[in-house]
Design goal:
11 strands, signal, disordered N terminus, 6-stranded antiparallel sheet, mainly beta, disordered C terminus, 181 residues, 39% strand
Length: 181
């Protein structure tokens, strides 16, 4: 049953990296040229692709959560656990409690919680948080040319929230081109 699970889900991000060398700024960061690895700036890098975990936490600017940058262009952002299937600009976002980079395990773990009392009913366009306390971890780990994203809940969701809570990862319009063969 869904409501008894602690893990909401796992997302695997993988990229085709053929011909992705992007000049001197993308120094080889691992022995395996086709593998993601943590760089000195605490994000995952593989040639021209960088995958960041909660480096920027500005909820109003749509630059938070899991961010993917390819050759200097942000192609995806806002990858985090949200309370609506398709959240809008002024939808509630979780508060970042902590962020830990474990170089030995090759993992970034971010602890988050709803509600964010600093955003609830404050400012020009106040966010409204439902009556909910939800603490969770977003873990990212490199697995070859892919990044594994796991979301772990501290406790099961209430039945009423099962279908509303989603891991949301929008891509920037016009930045992804799909070629059909």
């Amino acid at each position: 049953m869904i409501h008894s699970l602690r893990a909401v889900g796992i997302v695997i991000l993988s990229f085709s990296l053929l011909a992705c060398d992007h000049g001197k700024d993308t120094a080889k960061i691992s022995a395996d040229a086709d593998a993601f690895a943590l760089n000195e700036r605490d994000y995952f890098q593989n040639r021209g692709v960088g995958v960041m975990a909660f480096h920027d936490t500005a909820p109003e600017s749509h630059q938070r959560g899991v961010i993917i940058v390819m050759h200097g262009t942000r192609i995806a952002s806002n990858g985090d656990l949200r309370l609506e299937p398709t959240p809008g600009q002024w939808s509630p976002t979780p508060k970042v409690l902590s962020r830990h980079v474990d170089r030995e395990a090759g993992e970034i773990r971010t602890r988050l919680a709803y509600p964010d009392e600093n955003q609830h009913h404050t400012g020009f366009n106040p966010l409204h948080y439902p009556d909910l306390e939800l603490t969770h971890d977003v873990r990212m780990r490199a697995e070859g040319n892919a990044i594994k994203v796991s979301v772990d809940l501290d406790k099961p969701l209430k039945l009423i929230l099962e279908r509303r809570v989603k891991y949301w990862r929008p891509f920037s319009e016009g930045q992804i081109r799909i070629e059909r063969q």
